[in-house]
Amino acid sequence: MLDLPTGTVTFLFTDIEGSTRLLEEVGERYADVLADHHRLLRASFRSHGGVEVDTAGDAFFVAFGRANDAVAAAAAAQEALTPTGLLVRMGIHTGEPLVGETGYVGMDVHRAARVMSAGHGGQVLVSESTRVLLDDRFELADLGEHRLKERSAPQRLYQVGSTEFPPLKTLHRTNLPVQPTPLVGRTRELEEAGSLMRDNRLITLLGPGGSGKTRLALQLAAEATEEFADGVFWIPLQAVSDPALVSPTIAQAVGAPKEPVEFLAGKSILLLLDNLEQILDAAPIVTDLLSGTTGVKVLATSREPLRVGAEQRYAVEPLPEGDAVTLFVERARAVDAAFEPSPAVAAICRRLDGLPLALELAAARISLLGPEELLERLELALPLLTGGARDAPERQRTLRATIEWSHQLLNGEEQRLFAVLAVFASSFDLGAALDVCDSGLDALQSLVDKSLVRRWGSGRFGMLETIHEYALAQLAPDDAEAFGRRHAQHYLDVALSANLSIESTEEDDPELARTELPNFRAALQWTFEHRELELGLRLAIALEHFWVYSDPFEGARWLEELLSDAETVDPAVRAAALRSLGGTVYIVGEFDRGLELYEQSLALYRALGDESGESHMLHRIAVDALNRGDIARARALADEGLEFSERLGDRKGAALALSTLAGVADAEGERERAIALYEESAQAALEAGFTWWAGGSLLNLAELAEKDGRVEDAARWLGEGMTLMSRLGDRQHLVYGLALGARIVAKHGRTADAGVLWGAVEAEEERGPIGQWESDRAEYADAVLAYGGPEFECGRAQGRTLSLDEAVERMLADG
Questions:
Q1: In degrees, to the nearest 5, what angle opens at C-alpha 454 toward C-alphas 449 and 455?
Q2: What gap in Å lies between CA 694 and CA 684, rounded to an integer?
Q3: For labelling, which of 291, 302, 436, 726 has a CA lying 20 to 30 Å from the CA of 794?
Q4: Coil, helix or strand for 438?
Q5: Architecture of domain 410-421+430-473
Q6: Whole-number pLDDT of residue 563
Q7: Where are the domains of the chain?
Q8: Does the pTM of the predicted model rise above 0.85?
Q9: Secondary structure class of 27 (helix, strand, coil)
Q10: At what angle do helices 321-335 and 356-363 cross, to 10 degrees?
C-alpha cells in the first residue's frame, strides 16, 4: 500500500479538458501525447512531495502533506504543459480524510474532485479550506460562492493566477436540494443511466423503497446541468395523490404561469419527477409534455414503470457490499466520530440487503449499540430501524413505513399474493409460485413491476430480506399453515426430481439441490414445527446423497430431529431414514453409531421384504467390516449384496458391492484385481447417474496407482475423480484429493507444488471439522511433510491463502 499522508491532507485532482476531441484531432499520436502529459505532471508532483494515489486515463489524483506544496505543484505543472498546448483543469481541496484498505475515502475526496470538475482547461481552482493554509507567494482571484455538482451548500472558490476563463461549471438555474453528504458508490449506475439519458427523453429509475432511487436521480441531474441551457428542476411528488395536480406542480417548479407544455416548448430543460408510483395515472401528462416540446427530458423515479411508449427503464439495485460498508461507516461516524468498523459491519450490510435507507437507519443506532450488538438485534430488522432524520419525508423515517408505502398501493389480490410469497426462502422459480401460491401471472408481474418482488437474471424471483420480513408479518395464521404445507410438499417433489437418494434411477442433479437449499431448509423446519414428521423425513431422505457430500453434519441434525418422535411413521420411511442418518454419521467418522443405525435399517428392510433396501444395507455393513479388518465377513456380505443387485438390475447397488470387493482384493494383496473392480464400480456408478460414487471410486484408483508408482495413471484418475467431486462440492473428498495430490507431486520432486496443496488442506481444516479426514490425516501428513524445506514452506504459505475451490482449480489446471 502507498505511504499516504495522514491527518490534514491536501488533494489535487486533474484531467484533460476535451480529451475526446483531442483524440480525434491527433489520432494515432494520442498515446504519445498522453505519455508526455503523464511525464510532465508526474515530474511536477514528485518535485513538490506529492504522492500519486490513483491514475485513470488522463486523470490524476495526488495527495500532499502541505497545501503550499499542492498549489506550487499545480502551478509548475501548468507551466510545464504550456508548450504542449494541452489544456488541463486542476482542483485543490484540503481536509481530514479517512484512510481505508484501498486508499482515501470520505467527503473531502469527493469535494476535491468536484472542485476540479468546476474548472476549465489551464485553470487551477482552490477551495476555501486550502486557501486559508497558503502563504503570500500565490496570486489568488476570489470567484465567489458556487454550488458544486455534489449538491452541497455553496462553497467559495479561488483561482490561482489572473488569467480570465469562462464562468465555472457549477450548478445554475436549478432547485436541486442541498445534500449534507456525498453520494457513496454508484459509479456504474451514474455512467449507465447517464448514457441512457443522453439517448432517451424519458428515463425511469425503478427500485424498491429505500434503494436510493431519489439520491441517484438527484446526482444524475446535477451531473447533467451543463447539457441543459435552461436548467434542471426537481419536482418531488410524494405528497401528490391526485394526478390532476401534477401539471400545476411542474408549472410551479419551473416558474410557468399556467400550463407547463406551452412554457417549456422552446426550452432545453431536465425535469426530475420524483416518486411517481402513487400517481401512475399521471403518465399521459408526461407523454403530452414530451410530445409538445423538443428540448425537454424527464428523469423519473418510481417503484413501478410508467408503461408509456417513450419510457426507458433502469433498475436501481442495492449497493454492493464494498459500497454498503463505506456508506455505513460514513453514516456511523456522523453520530460517533471515533467509530471503527469491525467484521460485523459487512454482516450487517448483507443482512440489510445493501439498501441505503436501511443502512443509514442502522448506522444511526451506533450511538447506542456496537456493530456486534446491532447485528444480533437485526434478527428482526424492521422494529429496530426507526428514527430516521427529521427532515426526511415521513414515509422514509422508518424502514417499515417505506415498505408499507408500496404495500398500500397493491390491490387485494396482490396483497394476498405478496404475503403468501413469504413462505419461500431466498428465491423461487415461476413454477413454484404457480404451484404453491395459486399465483396468476398478472399478479406476480405487478409485484415485480412495483419492486416488491425482484426477478434476477437467472429467471428466479425473490424479495429483499427486509421486504420479506414485512411480507411475513402480513401472512395470516391460517394461510401460514396451509401454504407452508403446500411449500413443503412442492419442495419434496423438487428434491425427488434431483435424484439424490439411493432409490433414484436417473442422473443426480446437485446444482438443483444447492439452488433450492434455503427452501429445503424452510420446508424441513416447517415439518418439524408442525409435527408433519413423515413429510419431513421423506424430504430429508430425498436429499440423502447431497447431505453426505455437501454437509453431513447438517443432514444428521435434520434426520435426528425428525426421527426423535417418529415411531409411528411408515416403516419403509423409517428404514430409509435410519439408513440416511447412518450414512451421515459414518462419513464423519462415527463408525460405531453408524453401524448401529445400519443394522436397525437392515432389520426393518428384511421385515418389509424389501430386497433392494436389504442389498444397500449389506453393502454398508460390508464396508464397515472391511474398515475393521474383518475381510472374510466383508467379502461374504459384498457377494450377497452383489447377487441381490444383479438379480434386481440395480446398477447403483452393483457399483457399491463392486467397490467393496475391490477393497477386499486390495486388502488381500491382489492389486490388479482391486484396480479392475474399482474401474468396474466407477463405470457402473456413471451408468446409474451415481456421480458421487463414481468420483470416490476414481480417487480410490488414484491412491492405488500412487502406491504402485504409476504416476500417469494416478494423475489421470485423480483428475477425473476431483473433477466429479468438484462439481458436487464434496468437501471431504476434495480435501482427500488435495492431500493425495500433494503426496504424488512431493514424491516426484515438485515440493513447492506439494506445499501449495498441503497449505490449502490446512486452511480448509481451520474452516471447520471435515469428518473422517481428521482420523486419517496423520498418514497423509507423514508422507507429505517428509519433503519439507524452503520451497515447500513457501508453497505452503501460498496455499493457505487459497479457498478450497481455488486450490482444486489450480491442481486440475496444473495437471
A1: 95
A2: 8
A3: 726
A4: coil
A5: Orthogonal Bundle (1.10)
A6: 93
A7: 9-160, 187-315, 321-402, 410-421+430-473, 482-683, 703-814
A8: no
A9: helix
A10: 30
Using the structure block, give the residue that is written with the C-alpha cell 456421480. Answer: 691
Summarize pLDDT for 361-408 with one digit per residue, the tens.
778 777 777 888 878 877 666 665 555 454 545 444 556 666 676 677
Maximum Cα interatomic distance, the chain, rounded to a whole number of Å:
102
- All cell numbers assigned to 6: 495522514
| 173 pLDDT tier (thresholds 50, 70, 90) | low
- C-alpha pair distances (Å), 257 with each of 180, 232, 250, 251, 438: 32, 18, 11, 7, 52
Distances (CA, A) of 253 to 173, 176, 246, 257, 258: 11, 11, 11, 11, 12
Spatial distance between the Cα atoms of 551 and 584, rounded to a whole number of angstroms = 8
Angle between helices 510-529 and 533-542 (to 10 degrees): 160
Phi/psi for 49 (5° steps) reads 80, 20
| Cα-based distances in Å from 519 to 25, 320, 509 | 60, 24, 16
Homologous superfamily, domain 482-683: Tetratricopeptide repeat domain (1.25.40.10)
Q: Which residue has the cell 397493491?
A: 410
What class has domain 9-160? alpha beta
Query: pLDDT tens, 250-279?
Result: 877 777 766 788 888 888 888 888 888 878
- Grid look-up 489544456 returns 87
- Cα–Cα nearest to 64, from 37, 92, 88, 89: 92
CA-CA distance, 780 to 626, in Å (whole number)?
Answer: 20
Do 739 and 780 touch, CB atoms closer than 8 A?
A: yes
Give strand ranges (E) for 279-408: 296-302, 311-315
- Quickly tell me which residue has 440423502 as its cell: 544
In total, the chain counts a number of residues equal to 815
Per CATH, the architecture of 187-315 is what? 3-Layer(aba) Sandwich (3.40)
